[in-house]
């Protein structure tokens, strides 16, 4: 078994001195004992196992371990024809990727040609192990968590800032034992533990995505992929990043880039709506521009007149703009139902079930985990409101629908730092080039970030998926699917500059996969040699 000691990147001296304490080395792996598990609605059978991994990789003499739940969908081909497993991670941070495997196992398998087992796991902080939770119940969280969008009035920015201080203190007190063990560098090491335990070629094949809907999450999977590649460039066979985070801005808590395509995505929502009035009751014989302005006018009214609900909550500017509208711009398949809810609100009736995403598909992972991981990763000690204001201003300027999303204030006031943080510059040359995919209009991980990362990792190729929303599988494209399959099965990259059309459209009743899957199967490909 290989050990991790050759990669000692990214640990600030403050936290831990590399020379003094080598990281926990991988123990001889006894493999993974897979057992069938019951998920009645899974598109393909799923196997489960528990893997024991070091609790704290920076504590060399600690033998404490934790349990990492792992899951897989097996390759379609027989054992002898299998290629190495692909490790899959979804978004968040804070999402449990098991849901993706349950709902999308068949698509993940089709997109990789059926040659690979698809393995996923419940990352630290999210599942039962080390669950990052700051509040005893949902009501306390509703009161204690800063609003998602924070410029509803001229006092809102200051109030969000102050609430972020309280939130940071609450989490620091609630998570003072294991809150610093859930950072991305440790998750990267967990992934290498899985790779070792799989007992294949000792190399990672990685695919990130975001299929289940998670509130304010980014495609954290790409950040994780970027980090694992930065830490272990010589242990990564293939890596596909889809919905790409700018890792420099993420780690610096200076995310000015993330929202730059949000307005264009919202324009796409309005355009798709008026072009498909049969599934979009908001259309009402308006132009896309008129619809957009009528939605903004309604939001302005909400600023002054929040709507009390019979359930005892408020539908206010922040909730509707942030949790109903902005967050769901990521998921074109939900646009018809979002339009219906918005229409009901605008005509004075009260829709039910307004919150982030389609909660029916989200496992009960803690919303605090998102910040526990993201803010713990960042290198922002003692940021002041004066430091953060220019970031907020630059996000607000030119980002009408999403500019006010206020995450920088939360991370600026975070008290728990991850024990290990990657501080390298990502300028590495992986064993094989990475495949980087960006959507044309993604409200949270814009194409410009994908371009940045493709220029950072030596040899990688950028593919543009010509779609709205966040990540590619949500709006199927035969062209993209074939590129992904050729990458994993044959190690072939698309031509630089490739742009793939999608085989569906916004406000279609379908995500296009029922059409694309058989077409993909009709053109099978073979691995090399
Ligand atoms: C499975 O799907 C059915 C029908 O959609 C649904 O009623 C049921 O709750 C689902 N079960 C699980 C465990 O998700
Ligand atoms: C993994 O461990 C948990 C308890 O920690 C247990 O509930 C679960 O059944 C185990 N799963 C497997 C596949 O052994
Ligand atoms: C690890 O070793 C150091 C010094 O040898 C000791 O001070 C510390 O308590 C040990 N920690 C654990 C968890 O055993
Ligand atoms: C963690 O918080 C608990 C409860 O507030 C407290 O009793 C304990 O002393 C704290 N532990 C540390 C290491 O600060
Ligand atoms: C839609 O608007 C156009 C132009 O304003 C108008 O001519 C047409 O009658 C309208 N149709 C309906 C169904 O209201
Ligand atoms: C309000 O909007 C909802 C959702 O589109 C629709 O079902 C309902 O009929 C509308 N009510 C009125 C009074 O227009
Ligand atoms: C942050 O502030 C604390 C308390 O004032 C101080 O002890 C610490 O050194 C500061 N950290 C940095 C990186 O400036
Ligand atoms: C917030 O909104 C006010 C108007 O309500 C505006 O003047 C200000 O520039 C906005 N941005 C910030 C960061 O406060
Ligand atoms: C990527 O983004 C970072 C942070 O914005 C910037 O400093 C860097 O120059 C960019 N790299 C490329 C290749 O565009």
Automatic annotation (TrEMBL):
> What is the recorded name of this protein?
Peptidase S33 tripeptidyl aminopeptidase-like C-terminal domain-containing protein
State the similarity comment.
Answer: Belongs to the peptidase S33 family.
What InterPro entries does its record include?
AB_hydrolase_fold (IPR029058), Pept_S33_TAP-like_C (IPR013595), Serine_prot/Carboxylest_S33 (IPR051601)
The signal peptide stretch is 1-20
Decide whether keyword Signal is in the record. yes
Q: Which UniProt keywords apply?
A: Hydrolase, Signal
Organism's domain of life?
Eukaryota
Q: Name one Pfam family in it.
A: Abhydrolase_4
Where in this chain does the record put each Peptidase S33 tripeptidyl aminopeptidase-like C-terminal domain? Answer: 407-500
Give coiled-coil spans as residue ranges.
none
The UniProt record lists the keyword Secreted: no
